[in-house]
Amino acid sequence: MTGIVGRRAEGLSGLARRALFYLLLTLGALAFLLPFLYMVSTAFKGPRELYDLNLVPREPTLDHFRAVFTQIPIGRAIFNSAFVYLLQTASVLVFSSIVGYALSRLRFFGREFVFNVILLTMMIPGQLLLIPLYILIVRLGWTDSYQGLIVPGMISAFGIFMFRQNFKTIPQELIDAARVDGASELTILFRIIWPLSAPVLITVGIFTFMGGWNDFLWPSLVNRDIQYQTLTQMVTLYGIGGQAGGQVGAVMASSLIAVLPMIVVYLVFQRYYLQGIAGTGLKG
User: Fold this and answer.
1) Which among 123, 89, 127 has a CA at the least distance from the CA of 207?
2) 52 neighbors 249 (Cβ within 8 angstroms)
3) Where are the domains of the chain?
4) Which listed CATH number (1.25.40.10, 2.102.10.10, 1.10.3720.10, 2.40.50.100) goes with 63-279?
5) Sign of dihedral through CA atoms 158, 162, 167, 168?
6) In the predicted model, is pLDDT for residue 278 greater than 80?
7) Which of 41-50, 144-153, 213-222 is the least confident region?
8) What is the dihedral of CA 91, 94, 97, 102, to 10 degrees?
9) Which of 70, 114, 148, 249 qualifies as a cystine partner to 64, CB 3.0-4.6 A?
10) Which helix (H) or strand (E) element contains residue 40?
11) pTM confidence score
12) Contact 64, 250 (CB under 8 A)
């Protein structure tokens, strides 16, 4: 009898712990979601309820979106961001995977040293590299151009690390068989390794694209010409530079336009993203 009572008490305490755990998770999720939901709500609110805290607009309107497209060339900024960061993402996938393949499957002197140096660069704050990188871009004459945005991000230390770790999990016998058949190293990489590494390709692609899309600091340093401004740069300057004229609804609408592509990308590829994170492993 005592044992039964003890098991029931343990079951109730376990249930209470799980309930508390999920309650904390729910509160954390609400804390992260509330600003986003408020932004979405305010973007559709009419002038009379802009400063109310209700999350469901009583009189929804699209006037704020019309104001954004009228006051700034946001269509051009959307094109700039898509062009720059899609091209940058593609180059990161190609170049970083080539380096990752070399570090995981080719034997050469100093291989581990090179890999350790690449890991070391991941520990350097990016802000410390802004000044020398900016001076280099100025001397190359790449300010106010697409090159100044694309070239500095065409290869990624994080991408190299992810690819190297993932490629080491692929059986060596498969690669040896391809070499016996006369396949070159690039053919092995792009025709054999890539199809087997879709999750990590998508993971690196998401990180690269989202990191570039959300970046404001670097575009604001190298681009002053509105023709080359990215979406994040234009929306930020629109909100804090006075162009919005104090229109809170228009600022929220422009922010929503900037963040929606990231939400769509994540929702579409989240399954592969989680597989890619898990698939890199900790193999040395």
Assistant:
1) 89
2) no
3) 2-49, 63-279
4) 1.10.3720.10
5) positive
6) no
7) 41-50
8) -110
9) 249
10) helix 2-43
11) 0.83
12) yes
